Amino acid sequence: MAGNEWINGYLEAILDSQAQGIEETQQKPQAAMTLRDGEGDFFNPTKYFVEEVVTGVDETDLHRTWLKVVATRNSRERNSRLENMCWRIWHLTRKKKQLEWEDSQRVANRRLEREQGRRDATEDLCEDLSEGEKGDGLGEIVQPETPRLQLQRNSSSVDIWSDDKKENRLYVVLISLHGLVRGENMELGSDSDTGGQVKYVVELARALARMPGVYRVDLFTRQICSSEVDWSYAEPTEMLTTASAEDCDGDETGESSGAYIIRIPFGPRDKYLPKEILWPYIQEFVDGALAHILNMSKVLGEQIGNGKPVWPYVIHGHYADAGDSAALLSGALNVPMVLTGHSLGRNKLEQLLKQGRQSKEDINSTYKIKRRIEAEELSLDAAELVITSTRQEIDEQWGLYDGFDVKLEKVLRARARRGVNCHGRYMPRMAVIPPGMDFTNVIQEVTSEGEGELASLAGGAEGSSPKAVPTIWSDVMRFFTNPHKPMILALSRPDPKKNITTLLKAFGECRHLRELANLTLIMGNRDDIDELPSGNASVLTTALKLIDKYDLYGSVAYPKHHKQSDVPDIYRLAANTKGVFINPALVEPFGLTLIEAAAHGLPMVATKNGGPVDILQALHNGLLVDPHDQEAIANALLKLVSEKNLWNECRINGWKNIHLFSWPEHCRTYLTRVASCRIRHPQWQTDADEMAAQEDECSLNDSLKDVQDMSLRLSVDGDKSSWNASLDPNSTDPVKQIMSRMKQPETKSKPEVQGKKQGDNVGSKFPVLRRRERLIVIAVDCYNEEGAPDEKPMVAMIQNIIKAVRSDPKMAKNSGFALSTSMPLDELINFFKSAKIQVSEFDTLICSSGSEVYYPGAEEGKLLPDPDYSSHIDYRWGNEGLKNTVWKLMNTTAVGGEARNKGLPSLVEEDKASSNEHCVAYLIKDRSKVMRIDDLRQKLRLRGLRCHPMYCRNSTRLQIVPLLASRSQALRYLFVRWRLNVANMYVVVGEHGDTDYEELISGTHKTVIVKGLVKLGSDALLRSTDLRNDIVPSESPFIGFLKVDSPVNEITDILKQLSKAAG
After folding, report:
1. Sequence-separated (6 or more) residues with CB below 8 Å from residue 640
2. Cβ–Cβ contacts within 10 Å for residue 80, how many?
3. In the sheet that 604-607 helps form, which strands lie side by side, from edge to edge?
4. Where are the alpha helices (DSSP H) in 188-259?
């Protein structure tokens, strides 16, 4: 109860002032005990309230209320306030107990689910377990490793990155979306989004660009064109550093080498948005970044790739929003992804719930925490490697996620190492790589030069130049009566979690420490405490009161202002006085200030909770303490300050081992870890570049084909016989004769039957799609109760859209059509035949929810599968293992994840007609009893299965496709494969659709939502909490609306209007 003296105080006051009322209350039967006695106005707290309710409550807002209570003179008003305060504590405590019970239930349920997931995973795995693998059992506890042990283990199995990698010429992509990111004069602390992560990613980009073998590093962030912020954040490109001639073999240094900040516009162009508001615009960023990467890969190919594209070696996302983006980019480009979480949503949610101040709904409304957690889970699905700062982050934070299980990861890694089948199960690798630091400007003073400066400033020397003494030294030392004492330095925000008040109490209550040392508190910048956020203001106010309470004037410095450039000088001042650096935070995720202090020769005292444990194991330069133990803190500080031999030993150890936290060491470990990933990049069976080289030779053919597209093709409801006749080689039309002769050599190379191997030939539609300027994608999920296509409205919409495009000569030129659907190809062909639609009307067909892509062949009605798409989406796809697991889950689990009773009829049956190599399909027998997609995805993740499940066709089908496959990702594939920019695609959807419907709306493509067209969709089975507003922007220049009965001219107008939207 040390932190709750004020509660005890006011209870004593209540008991003293109302003793009689309490005695009367205690004499009444238990059922009659009330807070007020009869009709009187006197306050009567009960014994239950005193003994049970108040115990353990510690709330700063109630403390402020109590301060107002004790200042109240009027006894009646004072009693009224006391009563209200007691009620607040009572309700708060009841709420906390309820939340604690719910939390314990949630933890217990989660533990059971994880154990069930492990058991289910081992059912498939145990058959192939070798004797060696049985030692890697799921029940084994993984022991944490020190950085040294990790380095030794890694070096024994992986080649350490070295200078002989110089010939690699790598292209690395980093992503950090939120905050204000620039290379110089970083505005750290200007808001909650612009902090240590910004500094870290900028310095990482610079350091990677200096590594041998790295040619270019792009750091992607958001472009902000707002008067609220500096103009520099609107610059599309900012150079951070150029690659040195030494690293690039002198004259081979290219103009595109080095590190750059690339700012991509997404979301409202004229506003600076906090990270919680950026979520609906993530896909806009992905499309913009994809366009830049494709252009850059071509440029780098000309410079260093012998004319072949240079794809990113790795895409590294920082934080949840960038992780979500990196997962989509990685899937579109088929390159490895790395993730650094920095701060994790599940951990934050747990902490906020424990505080008891907000409900889960309020937390989600404020922090968009559910969208953030889902982004982190998606990032884990796609990531090859997850980089953390400490082992604690792996065990206590990432361990909260469905997508990561330390024990299962160890087993799967052992199986993969032995070449044993994992049945499609996968866990990302976790690597502890502490952040790096730039030590080039650190002055390691081992002489008395600094002491001379200090003596000069203190008035103990004459003739010394004041210019040699930093200004911040004067600002600090003016607080001290004796500035020659060793300085205990604490540097942090005035945040309650940083535990500054406990440090002050420890210093104030230890007489020997006060006599021997001074204390300097660098607590951010402030002009007026009252203008600070309540939490910060409360810490500062308490600190000032404690200084007054212990009469620490002349022994404690607390300057109001400092610049970022002053921080090294502050460390140097503390080191010159032979002082100590302390970080007493309740929990410290990493502790970058500890490394900075060690680099300047300061021993450390740090919290034993979190990252400092790993840092101390590497540096051996200080002591760890319990942050709640004032006496332990005081004793540790006193030991280091008083024992000079120990102080010198810690100082030397810090300098000797600090290289482990340098940027070169960080980047070397980083590149070594990335090199051990499965390096992959687009590899086309069909040579798109060769086809591009033939474009000039075929220009006449293309021009004639464009004429044919505009004038000779008839509409889908026209006379098809006349259209077929127009392609007759014997036609008297000279244009058609020329076209026929030009196409004859191509026609001979076409396959005779559909599905024949495509390695020997490429359909003529391939280059045609590549040269399209725009693509109209019809993705209307219009089905009846049985899941069959609702032909009448669907066919009418297709006809009207094609008519609308062709009615405008400018739009008709070089425009193509695509159909995107959850129907399998055979069913789609039958639909076309029933509706009398020619397959040749479309340049591409995206079937089975994005698991297949087809192009019309040279022969009428023949369709050619994309020969590269199948291998592109095959990543982490486990077909057979997935079938067994999904069947079991869907028939044993009901709505909300509850178990179904045995003996009940199955809810699904396999739909073989809709299944293919990369799509597992099921028929839904009772849609009211099946679990939602978010529940299914969670259970699959717990079992190590990474895929993309979705309900479709009016909730009559469940289709599961690979992680990299979806209808929206198929459009990005067309962009990467054929350079058909997503910004020039127009996607037509209804108001409802399959559960992947939301993905089709967001992005830089233009979306046309047809109201009233789709009355029945599968949206309700997507998730238990509606997150649509966090996925789809409420307003966007890329989204237009039509009515189901809109005439052709209105469709044309909306397409023209959307074409003017800036991409």
Report:
1. 580, 603, 605, 622, 623, 646, 647, 650
2. 15
3. 556-557, 518-522, 487-491, 580-583, 604-607, 622-625
4. 196-209
Please state whether beta strands 852-856 and 844-847 pair in parallel, antiparallel, or not at all (unpaired). antiparallel
Question: Which amino acid is present at 83?
Answer: E
| Residue carrying structure tokens 């709750």 | 4
Q: In what order do the strands lie in the sheet with 429-432?
A: 237-241, 258-264, 214-222, 170-175, 314-318, 337-340, 385-388, 429-432
pLDDT at 719: 39
Query: Could you give the CA distance from residue 976 to residue 683 in angstroms, rounded to a whole number?
Result: 11
Task: Tell me what pLDDT residue 720 has.
Answer: 35
pLDDT value of position 476: 94
**Residue written as tokens 């409802």?**
992
Q: Is the dihedral of CA 912, 914, 917, 920 positive or negative?
A: negative
pLDDT tens digits, residue range 708-752?
A: 343 333 333 333 333 333 334 344 444 444 445 444 444 333 333
Structural element, H or E, at residue 556: strand 556-557
The whole-angstrom separation of Cα 973 and Cα 677 is: 23
Closest CA to 602 of 559, 568, 552: 568
Main-chain dihedrals φ then ψ at residue 339, nearest 5 degrees: -130, 135
Q: Is-above-0.90 flag for pTM?
A: no
379, two tokens? 């990032």
Q: What is the pLDDT of residue 443?
A: 67
Please list the residues that pair with 445 across neighbouring strands.
none
Q: What is the rounded CA–CA span in Å between residue 183 and residue 239?
A: 8
**β pairing state of 774-778 and 622-625:** unpaired
| 648 vs 654: CA distance, rounded Å | 10
Model confidence pLDDT, tens digit, residues 654-664: 999 998 899 99
pLDDT score for 452: 55
Distance CA 845, CA 865 (A): 9
Strands 429-432 and 487-491: unpaired
Which stretches of the chain score pLDDT less than 70?
A: 1-73, 78, 83, 88, 90, 92-93, 96, 124-159, 162-167, 243-254, 355-357, 443-468, 685-767, 858-861, 893-903, 1062-1063
| Residue that has been written with the tokens 């639909």 in this structure | 831
